[in-house]
Write a structure and sequence with these properties.
Layout: E1 2-4, E2 7-9, E3 15-19, H1 24-35, E4 39-44, E5 60-63, H2 69-78, E6 84-87, H3 102-129
Parallel strand pairs: 3-4, 3-6, 4-5
Antiparallel strand pairs: 1-2
Helix pairs in contact: 2-3
Length: 140
């Protein structure tokens, strides 16, 4: 169990997937779920978790590029059940790219928006299998 601001969270026995769990924000979220007892899988674009500076111990790693629709669909199809999906994969590159360049803008939208949509769609059956598949994106 993990405590945050006086609130205790218990995710023992729960399966959680954190896309972008290898990055700063995603890894913090993943570690919080891990500390609350969840079985956590994180994703990133490196071949393995050793390619990241953060301590990812206690977290399972899977390579996933959220801009690759086929890879996202395949991982979704391979996932039988899931209690929580956190779409933390994203990019911000101030100074590295021009936000006014259409190709740079499209690449950012491809990760930050389309990637989240692809994951929500692909993992909805796994979430529904645990009755966790309810969100504002779920069909009525």
């Amino acid at each position: 169990m993990a405590m945050w601001s006086g609130v205790t969270f218990d995710f023992a026995g729960k399966a959680v997937l954190v896309t972008g769990g290898s990055g700063d924000i995603g890894s913090a979220i993943a570690r919080s779920f891990r500390d609350a007892g969840a079985d956590v899988v994180i994703t990133g674009t490196a071949d393995d978790a050793d390619g990241y500076a953060d301590d990812l111990s206690g977290l399972r790693y899977a390579r996933l590029d959220v801009t690759d629709g086929d890879a996202v669909a395949a991982m979704g199809a391979e996932t039988a059940s899931l209690d929580a999906l956190v779409n933390a994969a994203g990019t911000v590159r101030p100074g590295e790219r021009s936000e006014y360049d259409p190709d740079d803008f499209a690449a950012t939208v491809g990760i930050n928006l389309n990637g989240s949509f692809r994951c929500a769609k692909a993992f909805l059956p796994a979430l529904a299998a645990t009755r966790a598949g309810r969100s504002s994106a779920s069909p009525p």
